[in-house]
Amino acid sequence: MNAEIRMNQVSGDYFDTFNTITSPAPEHILQAALDECAVYNQMLSKFVPGSDVWKINHSSGQPVEINEHTRAVLEMALEMNQASDGAFNIALGPTIGLWHFTDGTAVLPDPAEIKKTLAKADCSQIVLLGNTVRVPEGTEIDLGGIAKGYICDCIADSLRARGVTSALLNFGGNVVTVGNRPDGKAWTIGLQRPSGERGKEFWAAVKSCDSTLVTSGIYERSFHLNGVTYHHILDPRTGWPVQNHILTVTAITKSSLLADAITTALFVLGPEKGLNLAQRYGVSAVYLRDDGKVFYDPDLDIVFVK
Ligand code: AMP
Ligand code: MG
């Protein structure tokens, strides 16, 4: 009989989410990898004075020197903007700033203000050359739809470099698996039921080994007003939350950077255009609509929970 393998878990709050790493590796190794989140937060958070993103957002149209990590995130962000016909847009910073999804106030922004900010939300005006980026005066970037994916990849690589061969990273909606479970079988990852208890109720499950699952949904940062759910994924054409009856979409692939960017784009695009975009990137995707209908890549090995 196999002796039970003891799992260790470390956790911490970063990027506005609760992040955990679970693995049979020693706790101090897991903790050292998790602690690196603080370094990435210092670079990529728009709220940290002196971060690369803060510098870009305070650059008044002047070029800004950025490090290789910020560059990697921006490259993918600009590529996804083009690939998704503008659905993924990091230049929505000021528009996002008008919304109150997390402070419990349930107040709608002034439509005239939204219009004004949208005029500056043109990703094609962002120029990335080597390690220098220039954004037009008045444009501000927000990496909330992509940075966590990149950081997950980096932390997973850090675990591998520290000799870890089996681990599960769960950073809010971003899951990354390093190797298989300690018993050699693939990890089983549950997809959160939007209306269910966090981490306890799932509507589907997918196997994962050295891959990532990233979910974008309307249930995390949102408020309700007069029967409408206003959530944090904005339609870049209007500056208002996307209203397409999609509750959640999950992308499954190798790179969490790609998965994070594409999942946000898939949400905005909806199933028809979205599954097409996912296929072009070799990414598996699955959507859940508010009437219970599911749209997904037929090659995806997925089990639905009743
Ligand atoms: P995610 O949970 O990865 O889909 O990211 C949602 C976050 O990305 C939001 O909280 C905003 O910070 C930002 N965001 C909102 N709408 C968009 C969009 N259309 N394109 C890119 N980022 C967005
Ligand atoms: Mg995303």
Task: Kindly describe this structure.
The chain is an alpha+beta fold. The protein has one domain: Roll (T-fold), CATH 3.10.520. Helix content is 31%, strand content 26%. The protein has seven helices and 16 strands. It has helices at 27-44, 52-57, 68-83, 93-98, 111-118, 147-161, 256-280, and strands at residues 8-14, 17-23, 64-65, 127-129, 132-134, 167-171, 174-178, 187-192, 202-208, 212-217, 222-225, 228-231, 246-253, 284-289, 294-296, 302-304. The strands form four sheets. It has an eight-stranded antiparallel β-sheet, covered by helices on one side. Strands 3-5-4 form a three-stranded antiparallel β-sheet. The chain has a three-stranded antiparallel β-sheet with strand order 8-9-16, with no helix packed on it. Helix 1 packs antiparallel against helix 6 (147-161) and helix 6 (147-161) crosses helix 7 (256-280). Magnesium ion binds next to helix 7. Adenosine monophosphate is lined by residues 88-90, 92, 96, 142, 144-145, 173, 216, 221, 232-234, 236, 260, 263-264, 267-268.
